[in-house]
């Protein structure tokens, strides 16, 4: 029997509770999930790929230990095109989190392009409504402009919150 592998790719800068929610939901659907931390040259990053991987790895391990019934989750970094990485790891689908209708419009366009270019399907998972307006770019802006990081407690995991406090500019 073939293993159903999903690639959940993103910058995860920083990782949020919304990201973890998508992973938890996907663990009930797929045999294995690769969380791929990609480098987008169009984005300015706050956390290094190493820090993002370490934070995500810690949070995923905690979640998997708390709920061992579900897919294996691996956290990796990659460079280049996401579809090329997906093919290299044998992913059957690209996993995408949907927060709201704005995400849906842009993700549909991307999914169609990925299917046309690389013959890979996308699967959308709608995140919990608590995270409907959570975005890593908004979190970065709050941190970089000196906002109260403690107010992010409902949208970022505690490990990320502590890391953000330590790494403030």
CATH superfamily caption: HUPs
Number of strands: 5
**Order of strands, widest sheet:** 3-2-1-4-5
Q: What CATH architecture would you give? A: 3-Layer(aba) Sandwich
Shape: globular
Q: Whole-number average pLDDT?
A: 93
How many helices does DSSP assign?
A: 6
> Ends: how far apart?
50 Å
Relative helix content: 40-55%
Please give the largest β-sheet: 5 strands, parallel
Order of helices and strands: EHEHEHEHEHH
Structural class: alpha/beta
Which CATH class applies here? Answer: Alpha Beta
Question: Gyration radius, to the nearest Å?
Answer: 16 Å
Note the beta-strand portion: 15-25%
Structure write-up:
The protein is of the alpha/beta class and 169 residues long. It has a single domain, classed as Rossmann fold. It is 43% helix and 19% strand. The chain is built from six helices and five strands, in the order βαβαβαβαβαα. Strands 3-2-1-4-5 form a five-stranded parallel sheet, sandwiched between helices. α2 links the parallel β2 (32-38) and β3 (72-78). The longest helix is centred in the middle third of the chain and has 18 residues, at 49-66.
